[in-house]
Amino acid sequence: QVQLVESGGGLVQEGGSVRLSCAATGRTFRILSMAWFRQAPGEEREFVAGFSWAGDWANYADSAKGRFTISRDSAENTVNLQMNNLRPEDTAVYYCQAVIAGRTTDYWGQGTQVTVSS
Length: 118
Description:
7-stranded mixed β-sheet
C-alpha cells in the first residue's frame, strides 16, 4: 500500500502563492506517476498537474500552465505543487493522487483546502 498525506493549504489573497506538499509512504517503489487534482464546491474533480515518478514527463492543465509547478523531493518522497499568482477560481480542495504499478485503482490523499480571496 501507499499512503498520501497532503499539507500546505490555507487562505491566501489573490495574486499570492501557496506551496502544497504530498508525502508518500509505504510501497513507494511501485509508484508510476503522481498528480494533483482539485475539486471546487459543486464541481467535478479536475486534473491540475502530474508527472512520472521517473521524471521523464510532466503535464499541466491549461489553467495551471505558467503559474503552477509540480516537483519531487526524491529524498523525502514528497511531491510539491508551487502555486503562484493565485486567483479566486483556484479555490478548491486539492488532492494528491498516485498511480501504482499493477493496480487498477489509484491512491488518493485526504485533500487540503486552498482558499483564494479577492
